[in-house]
Automatic annotation (TrEMBL):
It comes from Nocardiopsis changdeensis. Residues 1-59 form the HTH lysR-type domain. Keywords: Transcription, Transcription regulation. Belongs to the LysR transcriptional regulatory family. This is LysR family transcriptional regulator. InterPro entries: LysR_HTH_N (IPR000847), WH-like_DNA-bd_sf (IPR036388), WH_DNA-bd_sf (IPR036390). It holds the Pfam family HTH_1. PANTHER family: HTH-TYPE TRANSCRIPTIONAL REGULATOR, HTH-TYPE TRANSCRIPTIONAL REGULATOR CYSL.
């Protein structure tokens, strides 16, 4: 028996004083209301209405159980409302600050295709991890070592001037004889790469190669690092796609070879798996990750300024 449906019919018939108006208020046919009330009477073991009158008059037993029936109907309606709100509420997803707006739009479109309304919360790696841990977001794109990553992003160096080599080695930044200390070219690590598996190998190589302590630095922001690249001729650690977006020349970095690593983690393994499949291709594009030949292309976002 549908206990909630039967109680709803019972409450509406009682409130309206008859089976016909009660059924209309409950938006069910009158015979259905009658059957549900009769089933509830059998279930509870007592008669709810005095059927000797034309109106639906409660019996003493009916008056006793009506308040509980009201509570059950009210709780069921609250549950339905909360479930509807949960289905349509955005899923907060922490993403890297380096994701371009257009790529995030494509990721959002992929989410809509999967029935997900994504609410993006950009931030650096530590902020994303903390937001997931503190349940400020339901899922996060977290930075992990490449060996554990679902998506890998090769890093190289960006420069305001063209490179004469295809691969740049950190040793070439060493200050030569006669140059003043601290006058060498600097390599800037942006906040997105301020993680141990990227920062520490570069710092160790810097020290092993005899570079100055200020020649491999973590920038306070991507904008600050890019400014130093444009004004002072420094280098920016970045993937090729980001260099292109910033209008920089790019080449690979040799010794040490470093990569960004990413994984998508949600509040629980089941939700993690539910999100990964539909978002994988668009998220790889958003992160500038190494393409997976088996992955489908991400959904294209129309350019409003381009004529067909």
């Amino acid at each position: 028996m549908d206990l909630v449906g039967a109680c709803r019919a019972f409450v509406y018939v009682s409130d309206r004083g008859g089976f016909t108006p009660g059924a209309a208020a409950a938006r069910i046919p009158q015979p259905v209301a009658s059957r549900r009330v009769a089933a509830l009477e059998r279930h509870l073991g007592g008669q709810l209405f005095d059927r000797s009158t034309r109106r639906a008059v409660l019996t003493p037993f009916g008056r006793e159980v009506l308040p509980a029936a009201r509570r059950l109907v009210r709780l069921a309606e609250e549950l339905e409302y909360d479930a509807e709100r949960a289905r349509h509420s955005p899923l907060r997803l922490a993403v890297p600050e380096t994701c371009a707006t257009r790529d995030l739009a494509a990721l959002g479109a992929a989410g809509r295709d999967a029935g997900l309304r994504l609410d993006f919360r950009p931030g650096p790696p530590a902020v994303r991890a903390a937001a997931l841990r503190d349940r400020e977001v339901r899922a996060a794109v977290v930075a992990v070592p490449p060996v554990d990553a679902a998506w890998r992003v090769p890093l190289g160096v960006g420069s305001a001037t063209a490179f004469e080599v295809r691969t740049l080695y950190l040793g070439t930044l060493r200050v030569g004889r006669g140059e003043r200390p601290g006058g060498g070219r600097r390599l800037w690590i942006q906040p997105e790469d301020d993680v141990p598996h990227v920062r520490d190998p570069l710092s160790r190589s810097r020290d092993a190669l005899g570079l100055g302590p200020g020649q491999v630095l973590v920038a306070s922001s991507l904008a600050d690092a890019a400014t130093e690249v444009l004004v002072r001729g420094d280098l920016l650690l970045c993937p090729a796609g980001q260099a292109e977006a910033l209008g920089l020349y790019w080449c690979a970095l040799g010794e040490p070879v470093v990569e960004r690593g990413y994984d998508l983690v949600a509040q629980g393994q089941e939700e993690t798996e539910r999100l990964r499949a539909p978002l994988a291709a668009a998220l790889a594009h958003c992160l500038d990750a190494v393409p997976d030949p088996a992955a489908p292309e991400p959904a294209a976002v129309p350019d409003p300024g381009r004529t067909p």
